[in-house]
Amino acid sequence: MAYTAAVITVSDKGARGERVDESGPLLCELAAAHGFDVVHTRIVPDEAAEIQAELIRCCDELAVNLVLTTGGTGFSPRDVTPEATLAVMERETRGIPEAMRMESMKITPRGCLSRSAAGIRGRTLIINLPGSPKAARENILCVIEPVKHGLDMLASEGSADCAAPAR
User: Fold this and answer.
1) Is 165 within the bounds of a domain?
2) What's the pLDDT at 157?
3) Which of 20, 62, 77, 80 is the most core-located residue (most Cβ within 10 A)?
4) Is residue 81 part of a domain?
5) CATH number, domain at 72?
6) The dihedral of CA 52, 56, 59, 63: what is its sign?
7) Residue from 166, 116, 161 nearest 138 by CA
8) What span, in angstroms and rounded, lies between the C-alpha atoms of 118 and 92?
């Protein structure tokens, strides 16, 4: 099944045009390489209200299947992407950020510092990714295949053949 995606970069400097967004385009490329039709991209500042509004727009108005955010998941006082995401999601999907942190910990002990969240709003899955292109790549690649099965389940009225062997 073909799915749509949106990529939201959360960056004060990026939103002001002071920094070139590298993670957003990279995630668009990776999503497309895994069969997603990226239909929307946006750069927003590290402001909870603006992040929430963009997430709601992607989920409710654009009805994309997958929203990937990049940036705002660290310890800086301006890093509020997880809180903005938690505020708009209806159900958490804790295993996705757990898997990403586990994979990151294989590369650097600092992987445990990620505060990424993931969850469902309506029939849309939202996943927070780090702002670093390297970390964003590592994180999305470790979950993209299982995420497709999750999207199959979200799109179905039943179990989406959950008992079938993994591909």
Assistant:
1) no
2) 80
3) 80
4) yes
5) 3.40.980.10
6) negative
7) 116
8) 6
Domain that residue 48 falls in:
3-155
Number of domain units in the chain: 1
Structural domain contains residue 162: no
In a domain, 163, yes or no: no
In DSSP notation, the chain reads --EEEEEEEE-HHHHTTSS---HHHHHHHHHHHTTEEEEEEEEE-S-HHHHHHHHHIIIIIS--SEEEEES--SSSTT--HHHHHHHH-SEE-THHHHHHHHHHHHH-GGGGG----EEEETTEEEEEE-SSHHHHHHHHHHHHHHHHHHHHHHHSSS-SSTTSPP-
